[in-house]
Amino acid sequence: MSFGMYWSHRSLHEIPYLWEKIHSIHHWAKHPLSRNTYEDHWADNFGNAIVGHVFAQLLVPLDRETFWFSHLFRILESLEKHSGVSCRLNLAHALQQWLPFAQMPHHHDWHHEGHKGCNYTFSSIGGFWDVCFGTRKNGRHDANGGVSATWRDSSGTKTKNWVPKWFNPLLPNLVTAVAVGAKLHRCGGAIC
Predict the structure, then answer these.
(1) Residues 55 and 4 sit within 8 Å (Cβ to Cβ)
(2) Which pTM was predicted?
(3) Per-residue pLDDT band at 171 (split at 50, 70, 90)
(4) Total structural domains within the chain
(5) 91 belongs to a structural domain
(6) How many CB atoms lie within 10 A of CB 60?
(7) CB–CB of 127/107 below 8 Å?
(8) Above 90 in pLDDT, residue 21?
(9) pLDDT tens-digit series, residues 127-146
(10) Is residue 175 part of a domain?
């Protein structure tokens, strides 16, 4: 789920048409609040639902309880990320804070402040893909006394974007869609 949503979000920033017609609507808020979480173009949420939930569930099926837990955790994480509040009361983020690639609301605030130029912190949950593909930035971890700082923030560890300029960020989701189609074809249209 997070892999598909990472590349979807990155595509919405890096492809000028997708930015201008779809994702810029969500980024009108330079200092987001929870109510801004779902203020966006319908295609933004539809794409996330297809790539992040449908494709992921078809490729790597989860049992009902795990699926709903991950879905609800993702909603909580998104609401917290857009809350403008970064503290220990952010439950989804506090649970991830010990991870070496964790992201807190201050990372996403910084992402929103820079408009289209904020081509970093695209991950929906955790931040693993931002570390892998070099799009993680530390944000303003010391703005609240470092209460919500991750060890990576405090250490100043930087990542380098190693994806070549010519690479189209839609390609990973296209490959995922082909894999879903192949799996459905192999299963005769039934979910197997």
Answers:
(1) yes
(2) 0.81
(3) very high
(4) 1
(5) yes
(6) 8
(7) yes
(8) yes
(9) 788 888 888 776 665 555 55
(10) yes
